[in-house]
Specification:
heterodimer; A: mainly alpha; B: mainly alpha; 0% strand
Chain lengths: 53, 258
């Protein structure tokens, strides 16, 4: 493999790894935050029901 | 209506799905576009006369550089809209675009450095284009860092919006740096750069593919910001509830639970 192609491969590999890595990271974080918000909301609803009874 | 109740009601809006049927179409189109772009970059486009195959790196480099500018443009527009409308959604769009813009600027600097090592023989030189791009990167990293150090949401959004508008001033400076100062960097004009029609077509397809990717990233980051805002709202409700419990000595009241 020539040196030109090595540079080319490294350049595009860095671009793809960072872009897809960021996409996976952000999507995972959304799931995590939404799950946490869902749990807190359920807890608040339960407390509200308990208080109104 | 109590503040807590109004916040809960406002947040009861259904969250957009992470991956619905529209997401399936967008992700499929993205993969197809990326595959076509890769084929054109590595096979369809001819090698450049002087640089040889190393020139192929510039298709990706130009695309990510252009999208960094676009993302920072979105930050500026969203910041103006936030200051005008005071709707937190504009602030969410601004921070999402800023983070994606920083990512694309990082990719611009890395891919440019790899290309420069092969063509110029150095990883980095204090060329006007490179230096102004590095300054642009620092400006938006500072924008993101600034947001972390202001606790009050309204103040944070207002200060960030002003910073986001002022920071955009560096974008035209980066763009015109190759004309204003003597620079090693190639000019940004397609015609003056001496590209063949195959090269221009490859560049256009690559830019389109990366643009779709950029919008997908901004959307995902925007959804994360909205979810975080919702979490912040709920945290305030819980904090108020705990404060009420502390004041009433642990006796739960119907009003406090609402």
């Amino acid at each position: 493999m020539t040196q030109e192609l090595v540079f080319l491969f490294i350049g595009y590999a860095v671009i793809w790894v960072l872009l897809f890595g960021y996409l996976v990271f952000v999507t995972g974080r959304i799931r995590g935050v939404r799950d946490a918000v869902h749990d807190v909301r359920q807890e608040l609803d339960a407390q509200r029901r308990q208080a109104s009874e | 209506m109590s503040l807590a109740k109004s916040v809960v009601r406002r947040q009861a809006v259904k969250q957009p799905p992470l991956f619905g049927w529209r997401g399936f179409i967008v992700y499929t189109a993205l993969l197809v576009l990326m595959a076509v772009a890769l084929y054109m970059i590595f096979i369809y486009a001819p090698a450049e006369r002087v640089q040889g195959d190393a020139h192929r790196l510039l298709y990706g480099h130009v695309a990510v550089a252009w999208l960094a500018f676009l993302a920072f443009g979105v930050v500026a527009v969203a910041s103006v809209m936030y200051l005008w409308r005071r709707n937190p959604r504009w602030d969410s769009l601004a921070v999402a675009s800023a983070e994606v813009g920083v990512l694309f600027t990082t990719l611009t600097l890395i891919s440019g450095s790899i290309w420069g090592r092969h063509v110029w023989g150095v990883w980095w030189t204090w060329d006007p284009r490179l230096t102004t791009t590095l300054v642009l990167w620092f400006i938006y990293v500072a924008y993101l860092a600034l947001r972390m150090y202001i606790d009050n949401a309204d103040t944070r959004r207002r200060v960030a919006a002003i910073f986001g508008i002022v920071g955009f001033v560096d974008v035209p400076i980066v763009w015109y740096s190759v004309e204003w100062w003597r620079s090693l960097h190639p000019v940004q004009s397609v015609t003056r750069a001496g590209l063949t029609s195959e090269m221009v077509l490859t560049l256009v397809v690559t830019v389109v593919a990366f643009t779709v990717f950029c919008f997908v990233l901004i959307r995902q980051r925007y959804l994360l910001e909205r979810a975080s805002d919702e979490g912040e709202g709920l945290r305030d409700i819980v904090r108020n509830r705990l404060e009420e419990l502390r004041l009433t000595g642990g006796e739960s009241t119907p009003e406090a639970g609402k």
